[in-house]
DNA sequence: ATAGGGTTAG
């Protein structure tokens, strides 16, 4: 904003790409009202905002949890005949999924195709993740297969989302075969993957298997975090394995996984 | 100048 004021005194006239950079910067700083105001200012100068500016704003409003404003901006974009891109739809679909507005998502997904935009891996993953979180595992699986049919290569995030969805639905066998596929493809198993598997195993009471996976990840050099430990420790408590619980707690503390101070860990572990 | 990858008890 200061930069703009400075420029108004000079002969240089800011163009759309200059405004875009400023809007983007304001979004990064979470100054969304200022960013939106700038779009109005642009208009007064006879410069129309473009799809990149609108996409950045829509994404930022969703991330702030203001989905109604984000949808308003999308409408505005449409009124101004600014053509959305795959990136716009990705922000939109992901935003809707994460705001729990899953029922609006299939409409936009369809509209996207109607516009001739091809959903890419990021769009599919956002949708798969949203469906898995909203109890629509079958839909998610269908989309995953659709990706394969289209010869798109689902990446680690896509696999992880579907695997996690299966775990949340207690389908351990499917989850582990997805893990095997990831290994086959050559993806390194990372903390979110191990964390998700361990959580899923604990949920169904297979705490020993969870414990084995913890050992496995450490062996492979994947550093477990506090949540992974607490997941197993708390399950040990539930099942009455107090010795194992304490042992693991000590191991966690020894590893310095205290994330700040010891009190915070103590308060998170059920006693 | 734009886009994602969860924290997970009950």
From TrEMBL:
One Pfam match, by short name? Answer: PPR_1
> Which Gene Ontology terms of cellular component type are present?
chloroplast
Q: Where are the PPR repeats?
A: 15-49, 50-84, 85-119, 120-154, 155-189, 190-224
> One biological process GO term for this chain?
mitochondria-nucleus signaling pathway
Sorted alphabetically, which Gene3D superfamilies does this protein's record hold?
Tetratricopeptide repeat domain
- What keywords sit in the KW lines? Repeat
Q: Which InterPro entries match?
A: PPR_rpt, TPR-like_helical_dom_sf
Family note: Belongs to the PPR family. P subfamily.
**What is this protein's name?**
Pentatricopeptide repeat-containing protein
């Amino acid at each position: 904003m200061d930069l703009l004021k400075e420029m108004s005194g000079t002969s240089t006239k800011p163009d759309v790409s200059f405004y875009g950079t400023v809007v983007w910067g304001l979004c990064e700083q979470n100054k969304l009202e200022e960013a939106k105001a700038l779009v109005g200012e642009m208009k007064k100068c006879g410069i129309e905002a473009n799809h990149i500016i609108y996409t950045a704003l829509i994404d930022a409003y969703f991330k702030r949890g203001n989905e109604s404003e984000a949808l308003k901006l999308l409408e505005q974009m449409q009124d101004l005949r600014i053509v959305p891109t795959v990136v716009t739809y990705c922000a939109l679909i992901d935003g809707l999924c994460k705001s729990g507005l899953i029922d609006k998502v299939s409409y936009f997904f369809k509209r996207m195709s109607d516009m001739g935009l091809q959903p890419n891996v990021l769009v599919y993953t956002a949708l798969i993740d949203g469906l898995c979180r909203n109890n629509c595992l079958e839909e998610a699986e269908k989309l995953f297969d659709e990706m394969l049919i289209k010869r798109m290569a689902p990446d680690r995030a896509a696999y992880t989302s579907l695997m996690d969805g299966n775990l949340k639905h207690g389908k351990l066998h499917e989850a582990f075969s997805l893990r095997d596929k990831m290994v086959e493809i050559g993806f390194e198993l990372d903390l979110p993957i191990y964390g998700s598997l361990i959580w899923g195993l604990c949920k169904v009471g297979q705490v020993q298997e969870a414990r084995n996976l913890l050992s496995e990840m450490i062996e492979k050099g994947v550093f477990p975090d506090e949540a992974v430990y607490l997941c197993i420790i708390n399950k040990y408590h539930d099942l009455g394995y107090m010795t194992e619980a304490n042992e693991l707690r000590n191991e966690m503390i020894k590893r310095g996984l205290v994330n700040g101070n010891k009190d915070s860990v103590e308060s998170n572990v059920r006693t």
